[in-house]
Recover the amino acids of this structure.
């Protein structure tokens, strides 16, 4: 066997060996280049940026990085100090979040909104926002949902179908949309909708925009692998600027079972504080004032609890009740309008006064009365005829003749005797004549104004705490109502004195006119008009006076001036 035959046999053997190896083990050259397919059975972890699990956001993250220009970055922010560092740069950027529940401290979110107001962009795709964020953006925020395994999303007259999968099977899920929404700035646009209700809207905020999306499930990995999911994710990202860095607000991601830790601001709370003390508790200055007030009340109660009464009790001096008695008698007559009743009171008062000062009982039988009157005349230097005339007026035989004139005669004679016998002193007469008539305004209207003022002030403060602009207008209006009501209650309407008559308006200068210059009084519709010398007038509204004060004014008019009807 020559050499060529040997070489041929060896070549055939080698070819057979290579063929057997290839058939048994596959192509070794291709094995190093082939990528292993990723297979996941984890259907529990959700919204993780770099996870390839079905509910992860790896593919959305890759689409986001492809959307942004190459000279800009996509950076997740997981700590508060990282957010502060980005905000301090004062550069145009885009901030976004995709997840089940989003929340930031009130101060942090206010800083983000300040950047948006200068031209930045914010996108929030979340099933739920904490209350402090909702109050910063919306006056009314209501989200509804439908429980189904799929939903059609309307975009620019096109419809995209979205499914919810679990372990490769479709299951029912809550697809959310805005049932009633009213942003603080009503300038907003609907970008997509489900069930004819918006689920993706754009809010104008200063120079920038805020995007709110209610179904973050649209951006799961398995969803974007579908053509409809890919088109929707691309549509959403196309709303964002390409020439800005993107910061993902991972520090705002809350657990699904976490109940709104920022509902009232910066502190964790299991329930919202709706008490009236929320305004005080939010302000350090008001808290300090409230604490000092409680301390003052405590010290007052502590020191006032000691015995303040001296060992020997103080005996007050008896008051002279003559003036009060006269006013009581007048009120009885005005309320009952019974001349005989007032005559009996005057008669008993006269008999008691004579017995107290002169020790003579005039109230006797007819056979002893003449002797008692004679003794009283000697002691008081009052003529017997004058005493008999007064007693006759006290005991009229015919009650049909009783009228105001009869009462006036009794009062005039009785007063004359009291003055000449010094039962009534000049000082008491001066007090009676100088007694002022003070008429107050109708109380119902004043109380109503105070209640309206308190309500409007509290409503204005509530809106201010909620950052609603109308609050800055409401609380001054409520304070004005409150001031008018308190002013009406504390300030008299009309004061009539011996020397002058003063009319007090709710606000403004007091009108004062001399009482002696009053010429006549007339009634025009629902007002009394006082005419004074020098063509001066004083108009008094009847509706401003209560029934009792109106009767006092009419008694003054009937006593001093003729009322023209």
């Amino acid at each position: 066997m020559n050499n060529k035959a040997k070489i041929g046999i060896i070549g055939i053997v080698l070819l057979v060996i290579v063929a057997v190896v290839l058939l048994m083990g596959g192509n070794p050259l291709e094995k190093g280049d082939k990528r292993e397919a990723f297979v996941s059975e984890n259907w529990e972890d959700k919204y993780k940026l770099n996870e390839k699990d079905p509910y992860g956001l790896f593919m959305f993250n890759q689409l986001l990085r492809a959307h942004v220009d190459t000279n800009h970055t996509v950076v997740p922010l997981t700590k508060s100090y990282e957010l502060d560092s980005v905000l301090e740069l004062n550069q145009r950027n885009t901030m976004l979040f995709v997840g089940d529940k989003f929340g930031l401290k009130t101060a942090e979110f206010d800083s983000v909104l300040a950047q948006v107001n200068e031209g930045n962009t914010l996108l929030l795709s979340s099933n739920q926002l904490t209350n402090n964020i909702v109050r910063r953006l919306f006056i009314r925020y209501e989200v509804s949902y439908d429980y189904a395994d799929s939903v059609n999303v309307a975009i620019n007259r096109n419809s995209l179908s979205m499914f919810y999968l679990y372990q490769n099977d479709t299951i029912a899920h809550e697809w959310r949309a805005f049932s009633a929404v009213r942003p603080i700035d009503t300038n907003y646009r609907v970008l997509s909708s489900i069930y004819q209700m918006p689920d993706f809207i754009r809010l104008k905020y200063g120079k920038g925009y805020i995007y709110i999306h209610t179904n973050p499930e649209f951006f799961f990995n398995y969803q974007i692998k579908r053509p409809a999911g890919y088109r929707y994710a691309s549509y959403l990202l196309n709303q964002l600027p390409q020439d800005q860095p993107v910061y993902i607000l991972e520090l705002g991601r809350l657990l699904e079972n976490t109940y709104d830790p920022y509902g009232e601001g910066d502190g964790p709370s299991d329930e919202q504080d709706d008490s009236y003390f929320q305004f005080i508790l939010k302000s350090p200055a008001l808290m300090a004032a409230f604490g000092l007030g409680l301390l003052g009340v405590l010290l007052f109660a502590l020191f006032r609890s000691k015995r303040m009464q001296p060992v020997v009790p103080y005996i007050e001096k008896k008051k002279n009740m003559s003036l009060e008695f006269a006013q009581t008698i007048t009120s009885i007559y005005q309320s009952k309008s019974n001349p005989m009743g007032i005559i009996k009171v005057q008669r008993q008062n006269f008999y008691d006064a004579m017995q107290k000062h002169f020790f003579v009982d005039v109230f006797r039988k007819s056979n002893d009365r003449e002797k008692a009157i004679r003794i009283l005349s000697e002691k008081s230097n009052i003529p017997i005829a004058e005493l008999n005339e007064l007693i006759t007026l006290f005991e009229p035989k015919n009650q049909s003749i009783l009228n105001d004139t009869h009462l006036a005669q009794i009062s005039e004679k009785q007063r004359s005797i009291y003055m000449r016998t010094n039962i009534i002193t000049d000082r008491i007469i001066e007090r009676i004549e100088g007694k002022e008539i003070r008429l107050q305004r109708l109380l119902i209207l004043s109380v109503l104004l105070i209640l309206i003022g308190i309500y409007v002030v509290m409503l204005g403060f509530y809106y201010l705490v909620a950052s609603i602009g109308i609050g800055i207008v409401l609380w001054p209006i409520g304070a004005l109502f409150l001031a008018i009501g308190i002013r009406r209650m504390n300030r008299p309407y009309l004061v009539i004195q011996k020397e002058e008559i003063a009319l007090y308006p709710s606000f403004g200068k007091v009108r004062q006119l001399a009482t002696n210059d009053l010429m006549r009084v007339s009634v025009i519709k629902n007002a009394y008009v006082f005419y004074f010398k020098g063509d001066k007038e004083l108009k008094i509204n009847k509706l401003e006076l209560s029934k009792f004060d109106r009767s006092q004014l009419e008694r003054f008019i009937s006593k001093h001036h003729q009322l023209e009807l």
Summary: The longest strand covers residues 138-148. The chain has a mean pLDDT of 80. The chain has four domains: 3-33, 58-252, 336-433, 437-564.
